[in-house]
Amino acid sequence: MSITKSALLLIDIQDGLDELDYYGGQRNNPDAEGNCRKILDLFRAKAWPIFHVQHNSTNADSPLHPSKPGNQTKSIVAPLANEPVIGKSVNSAFIGTDLKNRLDAQNITDLIIVGLTTEHCVSTTARMAANMGYKVIIISDATAAFNKVGIDGESYEAEVIHLTTLATLKDEFAEILDTQRLLER
């Protein structure tokens, strides 16, 4: 990995995702935001490119709707004035945004992806990025998932959703690392 051509994507780390009942009742990986901060601190210290992605839901009932306080980025990873914030209204950070143009303008080839949620916006963005030719690294303990209900009403725990999603991305769409292994590189 050529870290000088890498960018950090912090996806949807927003206050509204703390409303657990809205999203499934349980979330895994409670330390995800703290790990996101460790990686963000590294990128800031090295002056490497950072992009914050913010979900602006079109559903007025969503905690992530722009009219709701939950739309705000969590303070632990709040963007600095010089760090771009890419607003989106779908699961991919590439659809309806200028993210690809920004990455290409800086000759970025590798993306480190962290944030929420593993099964939605992290996965969708990683898949699209890989299909566009970027090398993608997802940080497993800097992402998190929620409980889900299956097609026949069966319940799946957040950890199962998280690990299954990472397994479907591994090798074909992304390299999967944890925070410590990334920081050791």
Structure in words:
The chain has 185 residues and is α/β, with parallel strands linked by helices. The chain has 6 helices and 8 strands; from the N terminus they run βααββαβαβββαβα. The chain has helices at residues 20-23, 32-46, 99-105, 118-131, 158-169, 179-184; strands spanning 6-11, 50-55, 85-88, 110-116, 135-144, 148-149, 155-156, 175-177. A 6-stranded parallel β-sheet has the order 3-2-1-4-5-8, sandwiched between helices. Helix 4 (118-131) runs parallel beside helix 5. The radius of gyration is 15 Å and the shape is globular. The mean pLDDT is 96.
Shape: globular
| Proportion of residues in helical segments | 25-40%
What about the largest sheet? Answer: 6 strands, parallel
Percent strand equals 15-25%
The helix/strand class is alpha/beta
Low-pLDDT segments, ≥5 res: none
DSSP helical segment count: 6
Radius of gyration: 15 Å
Note the run of SSEs as H and E.
EHHEEHEHEEEHEH
Element layout with pairings:
Layout: E1 6-11, H1 20-23, H2 32-46, E2 50-55, E3 85-88, H3 99-105, E4 110-116, H4 118-131, E5 135-144, E6 148-149, E7 155-156, H5 158-169, E8 175-177, H6 179-184
Parallel strand pairs: 1-2, 1-4, 2-3, 4-5, 5-8
Antiparallel strand pairs: 6-7
Helix pairs in contact: 4-5
